[in-house]
């Protein structure tokens, strides 16, 4: 048996999310089926993070144990072959030791939230960004974002359905950058609460529009009450960029 | 009457190209219909360049004469409203004088050709790049590209259907850049022959693979024979980026 670490890229648009569900196609199911078609083995993929419906990934990580004796290139090419035409691809494969767990061994997760900030609707980026027509003040957004960096009780930015034991998380990075019409919010932490990034993006958008101040964001954080923070930004703009692990 | 200069962005995927045709939906028809829905006027749009089926644009330019008295913001918002859900958007509108012609006044056109150069197929970029799995040597591509810069008879890189009077063009820019898995070929000139950028991209790919040398590209150019240059690269990777005009 070999444990394989798979790095995955996908367009979340056509999926109900990473996790298998009864109500539609999931990324997990698509990859498990492709692995079965290649190896004949029926197994369960474990992912670093269960992305929601419509959320994209450039660097999701999952692991799987295969009985079949093979090499990394064959694993990658065969799974990709059987994944077609689903918009999911294995971009990297590595053999790992049995103590590696895609979810529990992860030490750092990086997300990006993309906003298209212009009057005209998206064309080539439809479904890939949050379209906000009101001009956003990114300097104000960054200033308010700084209030969220560090170790905090993020109850106000946590979905009701969140299953994490504690609402306390340490946000290592929260950077707001503009490049022309596009605003990218880079977020990184060891781990996240459910909807945490989208709730932060929805809140920072209120600041960018001038409806909220940094003080409002600080008050929302201190309130430890989901109803006090901004709305959940749509999944279209969210990308799981990278999952990091300690060197073996 | 006001002459309006429209800057357009579109996903070329669902279209038979810019120009109206009997065999399917065109970008021109989509925009002309949206203008009619807004103004009640039936008119013809003139574009800087007639992009082929599947070719994208970030900065196509067209002009149109409207009897309706209105302002630039209204023109933009109204056309964009009526364009939905087609993946076409007006990103800028300006009133221009009657001697402005989107095609004949253009002094410079910039294209980009995007190649996804990795083993795994595209997911989020499906239909937006040319997927080339063989590793490409971009330094060799740039070296060969340099042989095409300047004033040349580009007959070897011209589609049979090309209607230009002369095959002699001046290529101002031909730059090959890699950013991770993606290679961008930036091309700019006053004007282009039909399929010229895609034929150059298809030829440079042969160089990147090591199948052709710079000398082969020079010989192909000198031959003035379409059958001597490389194949036409697919439309998916081509973007009309920008059209420039002399200041009024």
Overall 3D shape of chain A: globular
CATH topology name of the largest domain in chain A: Alpha-Beta Plaits
Helix content of chain A: 10-25%
Biggest interface, and residues per chain? A-B, 24 and 24 residues
Please give the domain count of chain A.
Answer: 2
What is the N-to-C order of secondary-structure elements of chain A (H for helix, E for strand)? EHEEHEEEHEEEHHE
Please count the beta strands of chain A (DSSP E, at least 2 residues each).
10
Largest sheet of chain A: 10 strands, mixed
Strand content of chain A: 25-35%
From the structure above, extract its key features.
homodimer; 248 residues; alpha+beta; Alpha-Beta Plaits; 2 domains; ten-stranded mixed sheet; 5 helices
Summarize the structure.
The structure is a homodimer of 248-residue chains. Chain A has 248 residues and is α+β, with helices and mostly antiparallel strands.
Would you give an account of this structure?
- The first copy, chain A, is α+β, with helices and mostly antiparallel strands and 248 residues long.
- In chain A, 23% of the residues lie in helices and 31% in strands.
- Chain A has helices at 27-39, 72-83, 138-146, 196-208, 214-223, and strands at 2-10, 46-47, 56-66, 88-96, 106-117, 130-132, 150-153, 168-179, 182-189, 238-245.
- Chain A contains five helices and ten strands.
- The radius of gyration of chain A is 19 Å and the shape is globular.
- In chain A, helix 3 packs parallel to helix 5 (214-223).
- In chain A, a hairpin with an 8-residue loop joins strand 2 (46-47) and strand 3 (56-66).
- Chain A folds into two domains: 2-96, Pseudouridine synthase I, catalytic domain, N-terminal subdomain (Alpha-Beta Plaits), CATH 3.30.70; 107-245, Pseudouridine synthase I, catalytic domain, C-terminal subdomain (Alpha-Beta Plaits).
- The longest helix of chain A has 13 residues, at 27-39.
- In chain A, strands 1, 2, 3, 4, 5, 6, 7, 8, 9 and 10 form a ten-stranded mixed β-sheet that branches.
- The A-B interface holds A 9-11, 56, 58, 73, 76-77, 80, 84, 87-91, 118-124, 126, 128 and B 9-11, 56, 58, 73, 76-77, 80, 84, 87-91, 118-124, 126, 128.
């Amino acid at each position: 048996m070999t444990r394989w670490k798979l790095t995955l890229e996908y367009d979340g648009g056509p999926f109900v999310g990473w996790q298998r569900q009864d109500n539609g196609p999931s990324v997990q199911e698509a990859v498990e089926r492709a692995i079965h078609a290649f190896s004949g083995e029926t197994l369960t993929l474990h992912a670093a993070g269960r992305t929601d419906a419509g959320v994209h990934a450039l660097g999701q990580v999952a692991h799987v144990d295969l009985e079949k004796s093979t090499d990394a290139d064959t694993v990658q090419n065969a799974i990709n072959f059987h994944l077609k035409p689903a918009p999911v691809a294995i971009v990297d494969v590595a053999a790992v030791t049995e103590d590696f767990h895609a979810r529990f061994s992860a030490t750092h997760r990086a997300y990006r939230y993309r906003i298209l900030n212009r009057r005209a609707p998206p064309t080539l980026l439809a479904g890939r960004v949050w379209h906000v027509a009101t001009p956003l003040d990114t300097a104000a957004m960054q200033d308010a974002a700084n209030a969220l960096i560090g170790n905090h009780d993020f109850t106000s930015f946590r979905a009701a359905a969140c299953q994490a034991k504690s609402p306390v998380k340490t946000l290592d990075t929260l950077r707001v950058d503009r490049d022309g019409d596009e605003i990218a919010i880079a977020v990184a932490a060891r781990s996240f609460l459910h909807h945490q990034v989208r709730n932060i993006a929805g809140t920072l958008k209120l600041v960018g529009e001038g409806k909220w101040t940094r003080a409002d964001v600080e008050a929302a954080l201190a309130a430890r009450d989901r109803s006090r923070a901004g709305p959940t930004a749509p999944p279209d703009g969210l990308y799981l960029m990278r999952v990091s692990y300690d060197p073996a």
